[in-house]
Write a structure and sequence with these properties.
This protein has 83 residues and is mostly beta strands. The protein has one domain. The protein has no helices and four strands. Strands 3-2-1-4 form a four-stranded antiparallel β-sheet, with no helix packed on it. The chain is globular and about 40 Å long.
Amino acid sequence: MNETNGSARRLAVYAIPESKDGEKTYWPRIGAAFTNRDGSITLLLDALPIGTNKLQIREPKPPAEARPVPMARREFETVEVRS
């Protein structure tokens, strides 16, 4: 179970895609991280990174500092799921 205490600091988890030709990349926030009482870290992912294996855990940006990403710059991959 989740071993976080009430005073646990909430951190943001970002996926870091590879840059194409040195252009700036958008780091999508894909979850949250918490430090447990024993010092270990719990990751709660809302999405799985596709196309990168690099994750960054850091303090979340306040909403005023978060920059919106134009729709033309967003790249989404469509995956068909069959049950």
